Amino acid sequence: MDGSGDARRRVHLRDASDLVVARTAVREIGVTAGLSPRAIEALATAVTEIARNVVIHAGNGDVRVELGSFGARRGVVATIRDDGPGIADIDRAMRDGFSTGTGLGLGLPAARRLVDEFELVSMIEVGTTVTLRKFAT
Questions:
Q1: Share of the chain residues as helix, strand and coil, in percent rounded to the nearest 5
Q2: d(CA 65, CA 78)
Q3: Which 8-state DSSP code applies to residue 80?
Q4: What is residue 57's DSSP assignment?
Q5: Nearest by Cα to 115 from 17, 16, 53, 49
Q6: Rounded to two decimals, what is the model's pTM?
Q7: Structural domain count, the chain
Q8: CA–CA separation, 106 vs 26, rounded Å?
Q9: In terms of residue numbers, what domain contains 122?
Q10: DSSP 8-state code for residue 137
Q11: How far is CA 94 from the centre of its chain?
């Protein structure tokens, strides 16, 4: 993990142990941003779901967690990126119950429900980037 001060962290994703490091980074930045404990855990859960997908489907990637200002609002932005196979059908992948693996197919749609803003960009054989934003109330 590298970063600058308390406002930014970067975590490389290679295996399940990195998910714990990513959750810790979200919690640290969430406190700095003034998120409630409930909002911090919601974002940490969403980041874990997406990061787990990176480890399973792409093999490696990274998470960048940083403090952000959005107009008058303050919050946390988590960007999870990989250079994996990409998602062939994003609309389908965002539906509860769809999975290309052995999981329940709840990770992406659940992550979307846990955050204030969710953006997914994916290109076949190029990779996927998911951006999650959670705002302080």
A1: 35, 30, 30
A2: 4
A3: E
A4: I
A5: 49
A6: 0.86
A7: 1
A8: 21
A9: 2-135
A10: -
A11: 14
Joined together, the tokens standing for residue 45 give 């859960």
| Helical segments of the chain, H only | 17-33, 37-53, 90-93, 107-114
Q: Which two tokens stand for residue 118?
A: 């969710």
Residue pLDDT tens, the chain, 137 long: 334 445 899 999 999 999 999 999 999 999 999 999 999 999 999 999 999 989 988 999 999 999 988 888 899 999 999 999 988 877 777 776 555 555 544 578 889 999 999 999 999 999 999 999 999 98
How far apart are the C-alpha atoms of 137 and 129, rounded to whole Å? 26
Nearest to 63 by CA among 5, 124, 132, 4: 132
CATH number of the domain where residue 25 is located: 3.30.565.10
Amino acid found at 52: R
